[in-house]
Amino acid sequence: MELWQKMIRNSIHTVDQLVEKFHINKDVAEQLDEFFQARINPYYLSLIRYKGDPIWQQCVPHEEELNDMDGFEDPLNEDAMSPVPNITHRYPDRCLFLVTSQCGMYCRFCTRKRKVGDNGKISMKQLESAFKYIEEHTEIRDVILSGGDPLMLTDVMLEKILKRLRQIPHVEIIRLGTKMPCVLPQRITPQLCDMIKKYHPIYVNTHFNHPWEITEESTKACGMLIDAGCPVNNQAVLMRGINDNAEVMKELLLKLLKIRVRPYYLFMADETRGASHFRTSVNEGLEIIDKLRGHVSGLAIPHFVIDAPGGGGKIPMLPKYVIHHDDDKIILRNYKHENYIYKEYKPLKEENEDSKIEIEISNKRNGKATQPKKIKERKIKTNELIESNG
Ligand SMILES: *Cc1c(COP(=O)(O)O)cnc(C)c1O
Ligand code: SF4
């Protein structure tokens, strides 16, 4: 057994462990376990600094999960957009392919907790129909392996899937949606990287939410994937008490750049049942983005999006930078709240007085009367340039 597999085995998982370790009332712990099981591996546990801190909140079950009946089981309507088991096909040219129900840590805010952790709901026995679907749909050029976490599979199993996908000519890129670099970086081994290398282009989308998750171990894991040729991008979720603050967010994003991970998305928290206590207002998110743009490198700034309820897909949101826009100009404000005018491009027309004069001059010089106007206009400009230079 590999080290990471042993660490999974040594996770905090049972009701008794929750009671003992986190002093959760036994009744409550049982209900929480039934709602969404816990899995806190020894590495992620070691990141907790104090009770209720941002790491704790992401992994330790909380009574509030049980009081929240507002959210939805499947807020993104993934199951309805599933043509065959394990596939969600929402966008024209790419699809999600769920390959396991297991994760290295179970996040309390997970959007897919209706399935995650339950082998019966994301079955590996049904992969054949998923492969067939991808083969038949030649418009799919990008397959995103998710779950669960595809890196919970053994190298052998993952390689079978990659090999099979690589036999499909229209699949151009494969993405691994994995939280392992963050929650169990020991999973990223030299053997795994050597295997992945054979199936490029492979992109890795990972998921860091807080600067404390960027450690020596996670830095190394991301570095290994990047050195193996995988671009690594981060998808974070904006969450109350975890990263809903411009300073914390800035620290996270800049630290990601330092470990060569590019911030890709920042999501508003989904309306998932049992996760409402993590939600913030949209304005809080917009204010954070506003405090970043211009102040730090554009490389650090993710697309801030809402994954639209009901399956509308990811929709970007921006602070209000456009003050006014008409046919002639756009008035914009910059990060210092100063306004700037950008004039719209206007093709030259005959009605335009200046260009009429130019055309006359051009005709005199050339001694010709008619030429297509566009050419004439260009000519006069070139002539002027030569004259003024010479
Ligand atoms: C997020 C998502 C994708 C990928 O979207 P990108 O914007 O290309 O990263 C694809 N399919 C589904 C169902 C998704 O939720
Ligand atoms: S790693 Fe992803 S799928 Fe797994 S519990 Fe966390 S958010 Fe859910």
Q: Which kinds of small molecule does this entry bind, naming each only once?
A: pyridoxal-5'-phosphate, iron/sulfur cluster
* CATH homologous group name of the largest domain: Aldolase class I
Strand order of the largest sheet: 1-2-3-4-5-6-7-8-9
CATH class of the largest domain, anyone?
Answer: Alpha Beta
Radius of gyration: 27 Å
Which class do the helix and strand fractions yield? alpha/beta
Measured distance between first and last alpha carbons: 79 Å
Q: Portion of residues in helices? A: 25-40%
Fraction of residues in β-strands: 15-25%
Number of DSSP E strands: 12
Biggest sheet features: 9 strands, mixed
Rounded mean pLDDT is: 91
Helical segment count: 15
Strand-helix topology:
Elements: H1 3-9, H2 15-22, H3 26-35, H4 42-46, H5 54-59, H6 64-67, E1 87-91, E2 94-98, H7 127-136, E3 142-146, H8 155-166, E4 173-177, H9 180-183, H10 190-197, E5 202-206, H11 216-227, E6 232-238, H12 246-258, E7 262-268, H13 282-292, E8 303-308, E9 313-316, E10 322-325, E11 329-333, E12 339-343, H14 353-366, H15 373-389
Parallel strand pairs: 2-3, 3-4, 4-5, 5-6, 6-7, 7-8
Antiparallel strand pairs: 1-2, 8-9, 10-11, 11-12
The protein binds pyridoxal-5'-phosphate and iron/sulfur cluster.
Residues 88, 90-91, 94-96, 144, 314 line the site of pyridoxal-5'-phosphate (PLP).
